[in-house]
């Protein structure tokens, strides 16, 4: 209505008309209609570039907005192209220390993360954090946001100790500056809880969970149970319960969030579908594969309709549905979906992207379940080589790939090769996580089995004794 009137009264090229068009684009984004938002933002960018010039701040703002929409639509390559241009122009026109330049750098770092280039993302985020600390101060909200972004990058790189160090600082400062009830503080607490879980510090994660319960109660009282911030707090608390293995409680919270988001946002809204996917994973974790399948089928169908079949969210849902088919014994359907996801990710993201390698690993697992261990081994060798190159030999995904390949060697009867890989996995798990971490203990138990298969009974007994001692000390 506003856009139509301003176009009629002022002309379609008037600054106020373009501002109205930009605002309408944001409204479409909030409603989850990013295709329409993109259409409007393309028009705004073209007109501003023509009327104001390519270097004008409003043109660069329009370019940044369009880049964000491309990211949301899963077109990270196009987003990167636009963000590189924005960063170059901001640096030239405003200086490299200007807040807008640093914001542009942070946006580009985010896109590098989505493209799987965590090393480049880390490089940019370190720069952003250093400059924002210098320009804005270490307690400024933008500085803390930059610190949180860097923490996530370390998390993605498997450096949980560094991620924890940064998250602790963020939580402490945000609690002091914003209060423990603030959404940003709650989000940081949830991230810190997840990091503690990855490091095996479940007691600390439980402390953060209890704080999350208290915050949810306060939000419900102050804002109402249907308020978006209340639902966000509930969703964060559900994830913390999941990290701690309390899937029944996570399910209870997620059912509530899904019902309320469906009522408030509609059943096709991206946030509703994301919550449905979270609930599906919880059902999966609880062993209710039939219910998980039912939800995943709905998510895949709706995301294909709303976002397109090539969107990262759609492919993620398809991957989860494939795993569910596998657990239900429908291995041919799991393989069919796995092949589709791998082909699309290879085409869209490249063969070396972490998500592509994850899809390859999942397909290898399906081949294993079908009894085709030779094909599984072929894929797993490729995954391990590429993950070692892309993520490093100490990354959790690399170690998981190594463990999966070892399992396939065992299935093929090559226990010597399995042992070689399992010894490496165990050494790295002990070095990175410590002896008491569940992943380390599991690696010990797997190696004990392999020692026995090789008739290395003394080595098996020695390791078994160590496992007993560790478990008794917990």
TrEMBL record:
InterPro entries: NLR-like (IPR053137), TPR-like_helical_dom_sf (IPR011990), TPR_rpt (IPR019734). This is Kinesin light chain.
